[in-house]
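Researcher: We plan to redesign the surface later, but first we want a full-length starting point. C-alpha cells attached.
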C-alpha cells in the first residue's frame, strides 16, 4: 500500500493544544453555566422579595367595613399608583375574595388555584401579552382574602443578561489569551524536536556522527541520547563490517595467491610426483584459508553479539569434556598428551555456551599448533578450579612459551608468538577471539608463562 494514500497524521503541537484546550473549554463552559445559574437564582430571589414586600403592603391596606360587613381597600387608585410606582417595571395587583371574585385591582389577574396555602407562592404567567412574575398571599385578618401582585420581568431579564455578558466575556478573553500563550509555549518546547527532525532528514546516510541536540525538556534530551546511541551502535556495526571485509581481503590474498601459484606450477609439469606435491600444498593452503575464514567469522560474530548476547547458567565441566574429546584424535595423531583436571566436578557458570565453546576451541587449537615441547613429550592440560564466587578455566602446555615483551601484546589481532612466526602458521587471531568472547561475557582473561616453560591461558567466570 502506498504511503501517499495514508491519512495525514495531526501534528504533536495540535494534539497537545486540543488535549489541553478542549477539557479547559468544557470546564469553563460548565463553570460559567453554574455561575450564571447561581446568579440568576439569587437575582430572582431578590426581585421576588421586593414583589412580596409590595404584596404585603397592599394587604396591609385591606380593611373591614362595619357598615357593609365586608372588606375594602383603604387606598384610592391614585394612591395605589403612588405606592406601587416603579420607573422601569409595570406592576399589577388584585385583591380577591375567597371565592375568587375581584375586590380591588386589575380584573383578570387571579391566583390559580385558590385554597389553603402555607405561605406566599410565586409563579410566572402571561397577562395582557406580557410576561409577568406573580406572588399570591393568603391572609385571614380582618377576614379571609387573597392578594395577587404581578410585575413585568424586563429589569431582571436585563440584569441576568448583563451578568451573563460580564461573567462570560472576560473568561472568553482569558481563554483566548491562554490558548495563544499555550500555543507559543508548546512551539518553543517542540522547537528542539523540529530541529532534530530537520537535522536527521538532511543528514547523509553515511554520516553516523552524533546529532547535536538542544533539549528544552528531559524527554527530548533522552530522545536525542537514544538516537545518538543508536547511531553509535550502527557506526560500530559498519566499522566492524568494514574491518571484517578488509581483513578478509588482506588475509585471504596470500593463501589464494599461493594456491594459484601451486596450481600453475603443477600444470606446467608432466610428472605425477610433482602433481601430488602441488596438490598437497594446495590442500594445506586451503586448510589455512578455511581456518582463517572461520576465525574472521568468529570475530565478526563477537562484534555482532555485543547487542544481542544472552547469558544464562551453563555446565562448564560438560563443555570441557566435550571439547577435550573432540580434540583428542588430533592430539593423538600429533603425538600430544591431551588431558583434563577436575573436569568431573560439576561447575556451573554464567555465560554463553557458544562463546565458551569458541574459547575452548581456539585455546586448544593454539596449544596444538604452538604449544608442543621442543624436547620430550608434549602435554596440554585443561583444568577447572572451583572458587566460592567464580570458576577458573585454564589451558596450559609445556611448549616454548613466549617472551615477556610478546606476552603484553599477544591478545591483539594479528600478533603471533615466536613459535607461530617460526612455523608460519595461523594468523594471530586465536587469542584475539578469546579476548573478545571473554569481554562479551564479562569474564576475566589472564595469560601467564608456565614454569619452567610453556604458556597458561586462564579465564575466570562468575557463578550464577
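Model: Full-length starting sequence:
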Amino acid at each position: 500500500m502506498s504511503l501517499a494514500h495514508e491519512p495525514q497524521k495531526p501534528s504533536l503541537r495540535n494534539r497537545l493544544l486540543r488535549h489541553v484546550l478542549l477539557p479547559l473549554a468544557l470546564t469553563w463552559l460548565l463553570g460559567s453555566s453554574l455561575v450564571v445559574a447561581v446568579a440568576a437564582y439569587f437575582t430572582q430571589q431578590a426581585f421576588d422579595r421586593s414583589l412580596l414586600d409590595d404584596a404585603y403592603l397592599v394587604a396591609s391596606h385591606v380593611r373591614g367595613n362595619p357598615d357593609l360587613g365586608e372588606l375594602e381597600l383603604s387606598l384610592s387608585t391614585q394612591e395605589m399608583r403612588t405606592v406601587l410606582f416603579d420607573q422601569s417595571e409595570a406592576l399589577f395587583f388584585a385583591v380577591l375574595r375567597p371565592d375568587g371574585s375581584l375586590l380591588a385591582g386589575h380584573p383578570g389577574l387571579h391566583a390559580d388555584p385558590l385554597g389553603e396555602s402555607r405561605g406566599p407562592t410565586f409563579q410566572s404567567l402571561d397577562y395582557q401579552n406580557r410576561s409577568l412574575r406573580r406572588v399570591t398571599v393568603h391572609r385571614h385578618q380582618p377576614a379571609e382574602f387573597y392578594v395577587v401582585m404581578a410585575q413585568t420581568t424586563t429589569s431582571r431579564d436585563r440584569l441576568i443578561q448583563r451578568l451573563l455578558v460580564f461573567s462570560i466575556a472576560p473568561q472568553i478573553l482569558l481563554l483566548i489569551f491562554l490558548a495563544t500563550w499555550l500555543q507559543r509555549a508548546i512551539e518553543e518546547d517542540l522547537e528542539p524536536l523540529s530541529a532534530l527532525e530537520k537535522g536527521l532528514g538532511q543528514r547523509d546516510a553515511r554520516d553516523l556522527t552524533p546529532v547535536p541536540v538542544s533539549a528544552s525538556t528531559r524527554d527530548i534530551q533522552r530522545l536525542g541520547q537514544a538516537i545518538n546511541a543508536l547511531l553509535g551502535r550502527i557506526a560500530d556495526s559498519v566499522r566492524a563490517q568494514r574491518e571484517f571485509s578488509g581483513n578478509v581481503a588482506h588475509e585471504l590474498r596470500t593463501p589464494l595467491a599461493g594456491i594459484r601459484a601451486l596450481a600453475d606450477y603443477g600444470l606446467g609439469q608432466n610428472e605425477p610426483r610433482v602433481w601430488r606435491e602441488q596438490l598437497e600444498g594446495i590442500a594445506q593452503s586451503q586448510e589455512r584459508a578455511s581456518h582463517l575464514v572461520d576465525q574472521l567469522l568468529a570475530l565478526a560474530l563477537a562484534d555482532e553479539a555485543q547487542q544481542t548476547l544472552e547469558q544464562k547458567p551453563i555446565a562448564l565441566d560438560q563443555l570441557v569434556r566435550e571439547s577435550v574429546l573432540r580434540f583428542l584424535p588430533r592430539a593423538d595423531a600429533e603425538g600430544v598428551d591431551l588431558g583434563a583436571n577436575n573436569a568431573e566436578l560439576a561447575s556451573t557458570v554464567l555465560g554463553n555456551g557458544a562463546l565458551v565453546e569458541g574459547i575452548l576451541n581456539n585455546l586448544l587449537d593454539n596449544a596444538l599448533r604452538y604449544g608442543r615441547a621442543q624436547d620430550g613429550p608434549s602435554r596440554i592440560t585443561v583444568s577447572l578450579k572451583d572458587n566460592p564466587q567464580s570458576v577458573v578455566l585454564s589451558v596450559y602446555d609445556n611448549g616454548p612459551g613466549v617472551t615477556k615483551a610478546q606476552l603484553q601484546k599477544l591478545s591483539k589481532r594479528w600478533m603471533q608468538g615466536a613459535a607461530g612466526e617460526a612455523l608460519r602458521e595461523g594468523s594471530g587471531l586465536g587469542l584475539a577471539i578469546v579476548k573478545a568472547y571473554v569481554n562479551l561475557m564479562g569474564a576475566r582473561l589472564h595469560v601467564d608463562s608456565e614454569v619452567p616453560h610453556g604458556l597458561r591461558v586462564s579465564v575466570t567466570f562468575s557463578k550464577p
